[in-house]
Amino acid sequence: MNLQGSDLHRATLKGTLVSAETQMDPKWRLVWEIVNGQANAKNLSGADLSGADLSGADLSGANLSGTNLSGANLSEAKLWQANLSGADLWQANLSGAELREANLDGTDLRGANLKGAKLSPGWNRFVDLSRAILPDGTIHP
Asked: What is the pLDDT of residues 50-94, one digit of tens each?
């Protein structure tokens, strides 16, 4: 199957069948590997995962520093102890995500949805939360 050049933004790749012969952009193969537990997702520093559906993915302890996750769906994702320093999470969906003990220093969370997210105390010290939906459902100014 040839998916090279296909727009897979927001596509649900979890549970889909992809073989070594499937042709697809490296970004989307990485997303497929992450959501299907086929990737060593520990060092994803600087990766472009923008617009990816990573809902429910287990990225606990992963290095996501400087990663572009803008517009990504990370709802219910496991990001416990993940390094998200300097990551771009502009307009990302993090509703219900597990973010306890994650490093969020310098993270761009403008317009992100954090409703119901589980976070450690002091999580919001060094992040940009403009227009973000906070864990309690209120919108940050």
From this structure: 999 999 999 999 999 999 999 999 999 999 999 999 999 999 999
Residue 108: strand pairing partners: 88, 128
Amino acid at site 54: L
Question: CA-to-CA distance for 94 and 96, rounded, in angstroms?
Answer: 6
Helix (H, G, I), strand (E, B) or coil at 31: helix
What number of other Cβ atoms are within 10 A of residue 48's Cβ? 15
Nearest to 87 by CA among 126, 39, 34, 46: 46
The percent helix, strand, coil of the chain (3-state, each to 5) is 5, 15, 75
Segments in the chain forming alpha helices (H): 26-35
pTM beyond 0.70, yes or no: yes
- Spatial distance between the Cα atoms of 141 and 131, rounded to a whole number of angstroms: 5
20 class by beta-carbon count within 10 Å (0-12 exposed, 13-18 middle, 19+ buried)? exposed
- CA-to-CA dists, residue 88 to 6, 22, 23, angstroms: 23, 29, 28
End-to-end CA distance of the chain: 46
